Amino acid sequence: ADGTSLLTVENLGVAYGSIEALHDVSLTVGRGEIVTLIGANGAGKTTTLKTIVGLLKPKRGRVVFNGESITARPTHEIVARGIALAPEGRGIFPDLTVLENLELGAYRQPDRKQFRRDLDHVCTLFPRVRERLRQRAGTLSGGEQQMVAIGRALMSRPTLLLLDEPSLGLAPLVTQAIFDALGELNREGLTILLVEQNAHLALSCSSRGYVLETGRVLLTGSAAELLQDARVREAYLGQ
Ligand code: ATP
């Protein structure tokens, strides 16, 4: 991290019809950081990520990326600027092969050689994916599907990766493989904003975190501070 902000979310307010999901959410992600968003079910974590990538339009507030406002820009434009989302539930296409899913992530890439390099990068990160490129994605294990979802996001060559619940439903060893890969990507320079139920695991690989509660930021601090915080320990770490 070099201390400059890559993403700034300011006073975001988002509603689904008359249901206000985000009241006032502000956060920053610095270049090179891994930052975690934790919070109970329904706190607004997914809503925050969807708003950042333009899938939801905020009623109030701004999203600034690389010094420019991207608030409510079309999603394809936001992806082109360098943000990719690996969504909750993975969102892969079960009837397409693994390779076809990865190609979809690279739909803007006209250079076949660059595509090959990016594909090789994903396959080096996740050797399982390389073995299964021709397999129908719907027949993969949950962990393999998560690897494909992250791989597809990487194929758009993001500078900021948003991840929604990458460990959901996965066994501990598979979860560890996913988090090892995230650490490797971060060392290569990728900035990551992570939403996780597994607060201990997520904070352990993060520099900072935010705790959301009913659409507001309740707490923020360094990962070490949050891991020590009595409220965090009781509500999210089961301690
Ligand atoms: P989870 O961990 O359960 O995914 P979350 O923190 O990601 O929770 P969100 O999915 O952002 O929470 O939801 C925030 C609030 O918005 C919740 O009260 C939820 O019921 C509501 N909400 C989310 N999606 C919709 C929708 N499509 N229509 C109406 N309300 C919605």
UniProtKB/TrEMBL annotation:
Transmembrane segments: none annotated. GO terms for molecular function: ATP binding; ATP hydrolysis activity; branched-chain amino acid transmembrane transporter activity. Coiled coil: none annotated. GO terms for biological process: L-amino acid transport. SMART domains: AAA. It comes from the Bacteria. Keywords: Amino-acid transport, ATP-binding, Nucleotide-binding, Transport. It holds the Pfam family ABC_tran. Belongs to the ABC transporter superfamily. This is Amino acid/amide ABC transporter ATP-binding protein 2, HAAT family. It comes from Chloracidobacterium thermophilum (strain B).
